[in-house]
Amino acid sequence: MTTAPFRLSADRPAFDQVPNYDPSLSLTGNPAYHPSTAQKVALVFVGIGALACLVGWASGSGFGGALLATVVIGFGGGGMAYAWLTYGQGHAGIQNHGIMFSAQQARGHVGWLWGILLTGLYVLVYWFPQYLTGLIAVFDPISNALGYPEGSRQWVMYGSFYSLAVGTMGVRAFLKYRHIRYQKIRTVSVVFFQLVFGYSLPYLFVLLDQPELYLHYFWPLDYDGLWPDTFGWMPMAALIFGAAMIFIGTPVLTYFFGKRWYCSWVCGCGGLAETAGDPYRHLSDKSQRAWKIERWMIHGVLAFIILTTLMLWANAQWGVLGPIATGFKKWYVFFIGLMFAGVIGVGFYPVFGSRVWCRFGCPMAAILGLQQRFFSRFRITTNGGQCISCGNCSTYCEMGIDVRWYAQRGQNIVRASCVGCGVCSAVCPRGVLSLENGPRDGRIGAPQNNLIGDLDIL
Amino acid sequence: MHLVIVGNGIAGITAARHVRKLDASARITVVSDESDHPYSRTALMYLYMGDLQFAHTKLYEDGFWTKNRIDLVRDRVLAVDASAKTLTLRDAQPMSYDKLLIATGSVPRFAGWPGQELKGVQGFYDLQDLDRMETDTAGVRHAVVVGGGLIGVELAEMLHTRGIGVTLLVRSAWYLPAALPEEEGMMVNEHIRACGIDLRLETELAEVLPDSSGCVHAVTTSRGDTVEAQWVGIAIGVAPNVAFLKGSGIETDRGVLVDEHFQTNLPDIYAAGDCAQHRTPPPGRRPIEPLWYAGRVHGATAAFGLCGQPRAYAPGVFFNSAKFFDLEWQVYGDLNTTLAADERTLYWQHPTEDKAIRLNYTVADSARNVSSLTAVNVMGIRYRHDVCTHWIEHGTDIETVLQNLGAANFDPEFTAQHEADLVAQYNRQAGRTLTLERTRGRIRSLLALSR
Q: pTM of the prediction?
């Protein structure tokens, strides 16, 4: 409680130009953070989990599953206990207090360190797994049970960490938003899809000597889902299911529910963003400039994958475009599939917010967004004149939408990028925002009412 | 036309935006010494609590103001010379104007307690107050907040997030008695206490006691108690910020006196927002309205007058909202806390959660034979502004309202809906057999039906 997070001198300098928070390395430097002894004990467990990873990595051994158990109990048990102690008690309600003073959550030193560590881990997992041999060995009990070959066991480690993160932080998200049933159901849904469709089912397929299928990823997010090669090895049933979801399921569901049915209820990337990424959702850039960049980038990636897919088919059919088509494929896999979706998309959470990939890169989000913008029944409605322009909605929008811009005008919000997480509605202190599906007529722009006299001020 | 607006709060800024819409050629200058860019005053609490940073509270991106050619000037207006049409500024040369809008808001009100000038005693209204609070509450273990209004509970919540103990002194028997009936007020009382605040009702501040260095050390209350505190927040209300107008020829009472167009006694000078006082307020409205949205309507209405297209102030059906810690409150219509002779109330409260719905209505009058809805008050539940306003404006019959009440619900999807419970309660009380016909999502058809 020693450092004042913001300060204005007596002669009143421009307040806007004074940095108004002071994130520091010290956990107690946050004046709104008062951890209890129990919370500290829970953090010790998380620390032990981290230590187990370090021991495995340094020693090159998983110690027959002992480290794996420690990692799961440390991260999972400790993390869940910490979440319960932090959010599970007292009145349920929005508890974002102190986030802007946090060295971890407000792009302070801890946030940057964490971002670099995450990014580095992604680079190692994707391209240099030989440097992670020890850490990979921690997950040997699972890899052995699956009969996973040496040389690709980093994916077992990756999938296990991913699921542990979604599960543990899913409990945190559930408790944090436990006063809102929409949030509870949605959180359970994304955690379920990750733990079952993203983790258990694929490994079950492996156990049954089947291809490792991820039935909740569709083309173009699952970028090779429509590539000619895929048709060589994928089971017919999976192909039919995938095609049906791309061409029928996706547009129909998006028509009725908006893109949220996928992005914040089902998708694994969305699942990580909504759980592990929740502490960083406010870091996404809300400026108009970012919005302009976003629209070019995300639709550019969509064009890139469509073009690549078409070229690969042309190549397969007529043998034309050989090196160009494979070049496109190679570059798409490297830049979009690995660099963007993985390294940047997740590694940069603590710096650019939790939905960098979804917002700027995901071609699936681009398609769903176009459908949502032009054909869907979904919109965020605003509630008459109750908006006080406080800025909570825009700040906590993970997709970088300036929600307030619409709310203070009383306009419905119909934006291609909205994933329907519902947090703008949750953080609004005046009950101004709600997610709704309804008739498509007049859903864009201002509701035709003049609530306050006959002035057009809403 | 050079329009100068003094104050960059919601009234002044709304006026600036509307003048720009009405008159593309007007030169618009906004003078404020509070901040370079307009921000949301109601969000100040979130800065202290660490939910937001200052940049998040700016109403628009910085480029908005140049794009709309609204000049923002950081300076303080010391005096107005209405005959020469110039303003004396603290830092810059005098500024001339063709038209002037005074939108200077309020200052915290003090009741003249002994010791109120001590270091560590302050009100809470602007950025500078926030800054002072930030400095003066560093290291504070216990604080006292005085006042049973919205700012009082905000201060309590702010201090609470910093781990500072709070004693809250409220003159009345429950929170916000001017706006909340007893049942809702009791719910708020209990909610505040459950959040760990030492809420002392029917208690006033008597005196602030200093320590040896002239800082606040403790307070005594009207009940004779002494509460040790190193910081005291005063939140008993606000008063219009009009002291600088003395001797300008602009007529003031408590605030700047204005007509229904927000014009003062001088033709080219208008006033809007917290600092304006209506000579004749519209029915059901108070002369001074320190409300965020009222400032917006004031600013917009004044803009029409300033652009030579005067419109009368028509604020519509009253509404308001607030949040007490985790408890949301919305009200639509004139909610009489003491019912009028021909008025009835229907109140439902959740058995275990902090949720309540109240509908006030008049008893059936012989002319129209309807029991018109007059007010809606909801705690812990969100209702739709346009639906409630529509019903109140049209004097919709209470039974029609009840049968369609689902359409008024604005809670997030999957939230438990309690309208059926309210209807059941009405049926029991009135011996009727109404059913809830409309649930939410049919608002469009509903509005078409009842028009």
A: 0.93
